[in-house]
Design a protein that fits this description.
The protein is of the alpha+beta class and 358 residues long. The chain has helices at 6-12, 17-32, 39-49, 55-68, 75-86, 91-101, 110-115, 128-147, 150-162, 170-179, 187-205, 207-210, 215-227, 261-267, 270-276, 314-323, and strands at 237-240, 244-245, 248-249, 290-293, 303-308, 337-344, 347-353. The chain folds into two domains: 6-179, no CATH class; 187-353, no CATH class. The chain is 50% helix and 9% strand.
């Protein structure tokens, strides 16, 4: 059974305004446009569902969406059809295609699977398409079972009250709530893990502060201790100075209006100096000191840490705000927790993101 509580439902609903708006527009455009050729639809769909594939792959994908949009399409048949055309077994993207045509069907992604402790079969699995289809059928049954419960009925009633003009299936309402309720770790647990890693650093390596060691040396030791707090079976990566986002460079839109020139001058790091001079920021400055994530995708962006040995850095704070911004509010990364760590008189101080109301 999907472990979703009334408290989590109430917390999720206010986060969905933009997501519901874009979804309804996509559904309307799907009915009236030729989506195999309409670039604006494809761009919006790709941004909304995070479809990051090359143009040739997208040609086949949107061609299939146009081809099947008036039929009662079957998940496994589309999975096989796209695989034959592209050589890729795309469970998540196919579920988004089929779910757009048949909104009563669930979408496969790591968040939904995480709620039910399910994993997709690996590349070498025999009859992999059938095995993936079995997971999809399992989700259909789990959604159906949950929606019959008191919590399920509570979810649909509250959703309709929050979004009375949105004509959505019960399954899509549940999908939306799950989407913004990740079950990988709670923010409180992540804060505790960061605190524990820093505590071990202070016990074993605090002399690095006394010696005036570079912040990269300090962040490396914290990353080592942090890595030990996550199990190997979780397949998470703890990286320092990670500059990549999927196949490209990490890029961040900074919100700087809250800071004054004096804030940047007081810090004096390279980023703040460039902002003070209105110079263009280089992509290498967007490397968080430490991240806990899954390389090559945005499905499990857990922690981003920026660190200074003494002063508060407004540039780092702006980066963390951008890194933790919700996708439904225009964010690119949606890390669950951002941490600005600095050491005042040799003692660790923490500032956590997202801030209230972000």
């Amino acid at each position: 059974m999907i472990p979703l509580t009334k408290k989590e439902i109430d917390a999720a609903l206010p986060k969905l305004n933009k997501a519901v708006e874009i979804y309804l527009q996509l559904q309307n455009d799907l009915r009236r446009l030729d989506v195999s050729t309409n670039r604006q639809f494809q761009k919006t769909f790709s941004g909304y569902y995070r479809v990051r594939r090359d143009p040739e792959w997208q040609k086949y994908f949107f061609g299939l969406l146009q081809k099947h949009k008036h039929s009662k399409v079957d998940f496994e048949s589309v999975l096989v059809e796209l695989h034959k055309a592209t050589g890729k077994m795309e469970a998540s993207f196919v579920s988004k295609l089929v779910g757009s045509i048949r909104p009563e069907l669930p979408i496969i992604d790591s968040i939904v699977l995480g709620h039910l402790a399910l994993e997709l079969p690996s590349d070498g699995t025999e009859n992999r398409a059938a095995a993936i289809s079995s997971i999809h059928k399992n989700l259909i049954n789990e959604f159906s079972d949950f929606l019959k419960t008191d919590d399920g009925k509570y979810l649909t009633a509250r959703f309709k009250r929050a979004y009375p003009a949105a004509n959505l299936t019960d399954e899509k309402m549940l999908d939306f709530v799950l989407w913004v309720t990740p079950k990988i770790y709670s923010v409180q647990v992540l804060k505790e893990k960061v605190g524990n890693a820093v505590a071990v650093f202070m016990k074993n390596d605090r002399k690095l502060l006394k010696y005036g060691a570079h912040e990269q040396a300090i962040s490396h030791r914290i990353a080592v201790y942090l890595e030990k707090l996550f199990g190997k079976r979780e397949k998470l990566n703890v990286d320092c100075e990670y500059n990549k986002h999927l196949d490209g460079e990490k890029r961040i839109d900074l919100e700087l209006a809250q800071f004054s020139p004096g804030d940047f001058e007081n810090c004096g790091c390279r980023g703040c100096k460039k902002l003070l001079k209105n110079e263009q920021l280089q992509e290498k400055l967007f490397r968080p000191d430490v991240v806990v994530h899954s390389r090559g995708n945005d499905e499990r962006n857990l922690i981003a840490i920026e660190m200074k040995t003494d002063l508060f850095c407004p540039f780092d704070a702006a980066k963390l705000k951008a890194l933790t911004k919700l996708r439904v509010n225009g964010g690119l990364y949606e890390y669950q927790l951002g941490v600005f760590l600095h050491f005042l008189k040799g003692k660790p101080n923490f500032l956590f993101f997202p801030e209230d109301g972000q």
